[in-house]
Amino acid sequence: MDITAALGFLWDYRLALSVGLGNTLHFTALGLVFGLTIGFVVSVVRQAGHPVLKVIVTTYVEIFRGTPVLIQLFWFFFCLPAILGVELGNVFSTVLTLSLYMGAISSESFRAALKAIGAEQRDACVALGLPARVSVPYVILPQTVLRAVPTLLSNCVTLFKESALVSAVGMADLMYQGQMIADATARPIEILTATALIYFVIAFSVTRIVSFYERGYLARMRL
Amino acid sequence: MSSSFLNVQGLRKSFGGHLVVLDDINFQMEAGERVVVIGPSGSGKSTLLRCVMGLEKIDHGRIELEGVRYIEADPKSTKDNFVNIPVRNKVGMVFQHYTLFPHLTVLGNLILAPMRARGESRSSSTERAMQLLTRLGLESKAGAFPGMLSGGQKQRVAIARALLLDPKIMLFDEVTSALDPELVTEVEGLMLELAEQKMSMMIVTHDMWFAKRIATRVIFSADGRIIEDAPPSKMFTNPAEPRTADFLKKVLHVETIS
Amino acid sequence: MSSSFLNVQGLRKSFGGHLVVLDDINFQMEAGERVVVIGPSGSGKSTLLRCVMGLEKIDHGRIELEGVRYIEADPKSTKDNFVNIPVRNKVGMVFQHYTLFPHLTVLGNLILAPMRARGESRSSSTERAMQLLTRLGLESKAGAFPGMLSGGQKQRVAIARALLLDPKIMLFDEVTSALDPELVTEVEGLMLELAEQKMSMMIVTHDMWFAKRIATRVIFSADGRIIEDAPPSKMFTNPAEPRTADFLKKVLHVETIS
Amino acid sequence: DGYWSEVQKRGTLRCASAISPPYVMKDLKTGEYGGAYLDLCKQFAEVLKVKVEFVDTTWDNIVAGLQAGKWDMSPALNRTPARALVINYSGIAGYDEMNFAYLLASEKTKNPATDLSSFDVAGMRIGVMSGSAQDHKVTERFKKAQIVRLPDANGLNLALLSGRVDVAGADSTTNLLLQTANSEKVGLLEAHPALMKQGISFGLPPQLTYHDIQVLNIFLEEKVSLGSVDASLKHWSEVYLAGAK
Amino acid sequence: MGRYTWDFSVIAANWDPLMAGLAVTLQLTAICAVIGLVGGFLVCQMVMSRIAPLRWVAIGFIEVFRCTPALVQIIWIFYCVPFFFGVFYDPFYMAILALGMNITAFNAEAYRAAIQAIPSSHYDACTALGLSPLKKTLFVILPQAVLMAIPVLLTNTIGLLQQTSLVAIVAIADLMYEGKTLATQTYRPIEIYTTVAFIYFALSVPLSQVVGLCERRLRSRLA
Ligand SMILES: Nc1ncnc2c1ncn2[C@@H]1O[C@H](COP(=O)(O)OP(=O)(O)OP(=O)(O)O)[C@@H](O)[C@H]1O
Ligand SMILES: Nc1ncnc2c1ncn2[C@@H]1O[C@H](COP(=O)(O)OP(=O)(O)OP(=O)(O)O)[C@@H](O)[C@H]1O
Ligand SMILES: [Mg+2]
Ligand SMILES: [Mg+2]
């Protein structure tokens, strides 16, 4: 295959690909923000909430971890609006699904981190006479976040990758654009390889950051 | 009775309802006393200290400090005791595994409680903390994270952190048993210094030599009860109970400490 | 010289090329001797034992057992020493952290090496293993997994596992320092039993009382060198070197062991 | 108040866009939407004095999207009674026939019979756009062949060219464009008797009233009778073929 | 809420195709699970090999499959392999190829983590016991690695069950694909997508219970 011709071909479609990448990053970013918030709240509820609430959030986590993201997307796209009888925009449905999925997987990471902060640290807080209004924001929360960062970052990579599924419901993300161009031009090799490369470069960099963080920062603190 | 400095009455503590770890403990202590608790593993030494600190829900009994009841079993509540928090805050405790907060520097660990819980200003608490660190020869470590300290340094910082709250009594639970043998001395040295300043203490340790040096009184506990309570001179040379003698023999490999 | 039972000559060991941990160690030992190595943390005691076992690549020197050189620094190879494996297999070693294999039962741990490395039949190795376990009072634990044993039991099984290979010499690296104080006695008891049977041993320990009881000879090492080498009666009561005296004082809290 | 006044309040007319040249097309280099039916969407939006918004989707979602209220119209939708049970339709804006494209080089599809019997054999893979009218007809007609449902027209074309399917059953115009672009590779087969001839119109949300539908119909009536739909089809076919070269 | 009238008769009427799809899903899962268990171990051995080129190939393989979306992998393999080699294999085999390589990469990491978790003192103990390198690998390292990796391997396999739904996008007639087809044919997406989601969920939940059980038992045994 002629590399310069392939690059020239890709260059022609730079706009479509960058629009797709922009959408992918947009969906991922929104999913992250809402998903992490949901995840933290859920993990706290599971740790110390009302029993009824616990059952509800546990069921939620199990459902979203126990079904394919693809079916979740279809369900939120085509079932929920009809059941509720309200209009839900496509971007809204997409971000809703990704957020709920991210919330489910990251609640597990937060939970593990909360658990890893041994009872010893809580005892130390009592022995120092720290009330909850001090121990939670100054001792428990910072340690939870620091500890959860590596798994949360890999959850972010997971979400970024899973977001490719939104192409199946017609959201014009990177995957959708790549597929459209491949289909329309009947030249899948260049375009799909380029798409895969874009995903790879981003996901790979983030995983490097994760191991850098784990080796450097966390090791120094011996968390 | 209630004129004692520390007064533990009818203390009973079980885990899961059936494993009774402390069974009707009655124990008094005067200000300035240094009580060392010894006994076999699992005999409830740590649990006793944790109850005095208010870290465990007790089944029965009450604990008073300077005549004020600050912990009392509350049979109605399944989760908590009655706790008088201002009085409990006069008790300080240091644990076996350096429970410094790893995300804060040494100085950050020291000033957290004075600043956030006692409302002391940053400048005043920092000043007091730095004075204490200087006394301990640790002023150069103020900005270091706990992960960068040796075990002995960590434990001395943990003790300093408790001291900065001006406790009436300090509880030490095997604070040296996770340390390398040479590092033990620096921590024990600091405790001996506190002893000279007449700090009231309850100490759990497996180091009988240290026990002998620091204690004004030694308690031998087994199976959730206080078996013997005597001054160290008596306890280590001529214990009254055969079980105490037995235990000391096992731990010391020698008959008595001269 | 080369008639010694164990002969370490010109041993030098560094990590990463610059951190010299053992510096020109020369050391001989006769059959039946029990050498205890003491010294501050990081002084290279474990490293010395690991070199004798052949677990470390050495920079320089050689080690002989019964006159046969079995380890020699190989300056050409950056990864391995010259090792005479059949001779090295006459050395047995037990580590601080019970290195029983957690996926095998006690019996499985014991017969693994006889069966897989020595080619002994399953029935014969099982028989020998069961005899040994019975002697140790552990026959009921043969089918148990290590996770179900106490620390003291684990260490006794680990010693038994090494003994089943009929070693000429046993190396013990702080085998009791991770144990609860009462469990220490059962492991030390087993080692004393081996001593009575005239097993040659090199022992690293921080327990000076035990050192005094078991040693025929004590070596004090610091900074990668052997500082003092004397019988226990001399070492503990009247050490020649000020550094030794200093160290013993720190570790014992008393001037000498009577 | 009718449905269209709600659209006017919102200010945008949402049109589903699932690729099917020359009806619905998108120039990926520029991101411009085009095609004969999308032109009609644009013109209808002008009538309503609102902006037009094209929503990317795939064919198998096109009816579900109307049911779920994801868009206001699905252009270029074949009229079938089954669909009419769940959504509304505008009047007819054109007719759709289907035919079959196959690879000339393939042994399996040599000299196909016009009654389709040589396609309906075990091991034959017939590609269709998932959820399209052709999908339904082919599913009815073929009992032995395996039916492979692909999400859109381009995917179907690529599947045929890559050998993923042996035969592509699609809208005649779409197939004709494929054949014209790849005349040395692709052959076309017209079925006798015809498998289907269906009107194409706009699919509309189920809750529209008769009055709402009338609005669109009156608009369409004029466009069709003036021949502007045909002209537009011709134009976009040329654009497509120029791009495929 | 409640505007929608549910009608599950459509599920009963189309039970057979759904079950046929489920059979394909289960077949794909089972075959790829086996490939992943064996392949993962082999790739892990390559990663830990002394031969540098073998190591590089294996690490490259793992990173590529871990850092790109599974959907991209599947579509790449479906569209690009025929163009490269001019042949189109049976799509079922292509699906197995794509999913199998994906799970192999993830399992290789699980094995590697397990092997690295074996304390170095066990290697020393083997030397002290006179076990040769081969015997050491065979009787000490391998069994421990497999035991310790089991929970993660099982988790990956549950993930695989959900991943298989992606092949619906390239028209392999699995459960998801049958669901999608039925949804567009019957115009009752709500009942159908809900049922399909429930089937996936009903398969995943008992599996994750098993994982939890395994984890607890292993942890108590290997403690
Ligand atoms: N949180 C807990 N839940 C259940 N049982 C517990 C708990 N904490 C302690 N125990 C049990 O209570 C008993 C006493 O424990 P404790 O830690 O007080 O003993 P100890 O005298 O401090 O022993 P050691 O010398 O080993 O520290 C033990 O049998 C222990 O297993
Ligand atoms: N694998 C290694 N890599 C680098 N340095 C090492 C390694 N093993 C040991 N060291 C260093 O070698 C020195 C001697 O270690 P060694 O474990 O032999 O001491 P030790 O006398 O056994 O101490 P301890 O009483 O704490 O067990 C220490 O400074 C240690 O940090
Ligand atoms: Mg304790
Ligand atoms: Mg050592």
From TrEMBL, chain A:
Q: List the membrane topology term(s).
A: Multi-pass membrane protein
Tell me which domain of life the UniProt entry assigns to the organism this sequence originates from.
Bacteria
Question: Which keywords are on file for this protein?
Answer: Amino-acid transport, Cell membrane, Membrane, Transmembrane, Transmembrane helix, Transport
Kindly list the residue ranges recorded as spanning the membrane.
Answer: 26-45, 73-101, 191-213
Where does this one sit in the cell?
A: Cell inner membrane; Cell membrane
Q: Which PROSITE patterns match?
A: ABC_TM1
GO CC terms, sorted:
ATP-binding cassette (ABC) transporter complex
- From the UniProt annotation, give the residues forming the signal peptide: none
Its biological purpose: Part of the binding-protein-dependent transport system for glutamine; probably responsible for the translocation of the substrate across the membrane.
Tell me what this protein is called.
Amino acid ABC transporter membrane protein 2 (PAAT family)
Q: Look up and give the organism this protein is from.
A: Ancylobacter aquaticus
TrEMBL record, chains B, C:
Gene Ontology molecular function: ABC-type amino acid transporter activity; ATP binding; ATP hydrolysis activity
GO annotation, cellular component aspect: plasma membrane
List each copy of the ABC transporter domain by range. Answer: 6-248
Principal location class? membrane
Top-level taxon of the source organism: Bacteria
Q: Which InterPro entries match?
A: AAA+_ATPase (IPR003593), ABC_ATPase_HisP-typ (IPR030679), ABC_transporter-like_ATP-bd (IPR003439), ABC_transporter-like_CS (IPR017871), MetN_ABC_transporter-like (IPR050086), P-loop_NTPase (IPR027417)
> What is the official name of this protein in its record?
Amino acid ABC transporter ATP-binding protein (PAAT family)
> Where do the TM regions start and end?
none
Source species of the chain: Ancylobacter aquaticus
- This protein's UniProt keywords: Amino-acid transport, ATP-binding, Cell membrane, Membrane, Nucleotide-binding, Transport
Record membrane topology: Peripheral membrane protein
Question: Where is the protein situated, by its record's location annotation?
Answer: Cell membrane
Q: Which family does it belong to?
A: Belongs to the ABC transporter superfamily.
Q: Could you tell me which SMART domains the record lists for this protein?
A: AAA (SM00382)
UniProtKB/TrEMBL annotation, chain E:
Tell me a GO biological process for this protein: amino acid transport
Principal place of residence: membrane
List localization entries.
Answer: Cell inner membrane; Cell membrane
Please provide, in alphabetical order, the Gene Ontology terms of the cellular component aspect for this entry: ATP-binding cassette (ABC) transporter complex
Residue ranges annotated as transmembrane are 20-44, 56-79, 91-108, 145-172, 192-214
One annotated GO molecular function is: transmembrane transporter activity
Chain ranges of the ABC transmembrane type-1 domain: 18-211
- Keyword terms, alphabetized: Amino-acid transport, Cell membrane, Membrane, Transmembrane, Transmembrane helix, Transport
What is the membrane topology here?
A: Multi-pass membrane protein
Q: Which InterPro entries match?
A: AA_ABC_transptr_permease_3TM, ArtM/GltK/GlnP/TcyL/YhdX-like, MetI-like, MetI-like_sf
Listed PROSITE patterns: ABC_TM1 (PS50928)
Q: Which family does it belong to?
A: Belongs to the binding-protein-dependent transport system permease family. HisMQ subfamily.
State what this protein does: Part of the binding-protein-dependent transport system for glutamine; probably responsible for the translocation of the substrate across the membrane.
Q: Which PANTHER family match?
A: GLUTAMINE TRANSPORT SYSTEM PERMEASE PROTEIN GLNP, MEMBRANE COMPONENT OF AMINO ACID ABC TRANSPORTER
What is this protein's record name? Answer: Amino acid ABC transporter membrane protein 1 (PAAT family)
Annotated organism of origin: Ancylobacter aquaticus
Identify the taxonomic lineage of the organism of origin.
Bacteria, Pseudomonadati, Pseudomonadota, Alphaproteobacteria, Hyphomicrobiales
